[in-house]
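Thought: the user wants the 3D structure for the chain below. I'll pass the sequence to the structure tool as-is, report back what it returns, then summarize two notable features.
Action: structure_tool
Action Input:
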Amino acid sequence: MTPDAADPQHAERADLAPAAPLDDADASQAVLPAAHAPLDVRSSALAILAALASVYALWQAQAFVVPLLLGIVIAYTLNPLVVWMEAIRIPRVLGTSIVMVSVIAAMVLGTYSLRGEVQTIIEQLPEAAVKFATGLQRLQISQVGNLQKIQHAAIAMEKAASQTSGGPAVPRQPATHVIVDQPEFRVGNFLWKSSMGALEVTGQVVMVAFLVFFLLLGGDKFKRKLVRLTGPSLARKKITVRILDDINSSIQKYMLMLLTTNLLVAALSWIAFRWIGLENAGAWAAVAGVLHIVPYLGPVITAAAAAMAAFMQFESFAMVLLVAGSSLAIATFVGTFVSTWMTGRIAKMSPAAIFISLLFWGWLWGIWGMLLSIPVVVIIKVVSQHLEQLHPVSELLGD
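Observation:
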């Protein structure tokens, strides 16, 4: 045993002594410890839970949030008219009242001018339903007759094959008929639900109208309050003003695009229906223009309703296909080319992001969600562009 190994103090000093420097060969063979970036699992879990809680809160607060967003979008749209009236020395209260009365009067006059055609369509709905059901029954009977012929031919071929092979004939299984009890339809319950739904829609319309009026009357007060709440920092105030201005500009451009595309759909539908010879073409064109506000679902409803009217008038499935096909073709052309091009120019957003937002907000709020999906996602994109923490969101939504 050597003295160095026998002396523990010497061994301890040897461990504490600094290591000899490595040459280049040893340094190249040395393995450095791997550096692992810490994964904050707790923060990720909290972010996911916060997102789920926000979605649940938006779903529960639909009756409050949807009219609020509608009022804000409409107020942003009408605000330039009020500002223009202020510029020509009209007080804001009077200008707001003039704008609101003009909009409501235009809607009432437009509805009143089409009342005759709409009343005719409503009166013809029962007869149209009966004729459509009769036509479907005839088509079903003809299809059943063809199926029976095919079945008899298959049985004959089966018998011939069994006789040729010398085997016994395959016994036929008795047919099983399933009877499904339909729920009883009560006119009283239907009228009660319809009246309650109409009252609910009327209440929401009145609430949105008052909200728009007060938002227009307030002017830039709400904007100044938001800027004041951001704090004393001048940089934050500038960012807030820039965000609000961009939101204002984007929503106004989007609503202008929506008005343009709806008028284009109404005009093209009127030309097509008049060329086909469909009665009440003006009312159906107005319905097509109004329902085009709701993406995807509105054109389908318009095509189905116009197809029923065409069958009632012409009693021909060829004319039904012509009317429905022309309506869907016009909506597809305007939606695919005009709306997509204008939306891309306005918001510079990815079409995939727009479609995914339609699916999400439609799933969350139904038809109202599909109507408000693009303004909401435009607001999210504008905010994420100006906040460094949300730049990944802006990158995902961008084109």
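Final Answer: Structure generated. Residues 1-6, 8-37, 177-183 have pLDDT under 50 and may be disordered. The chain has 16 helices and no strands.
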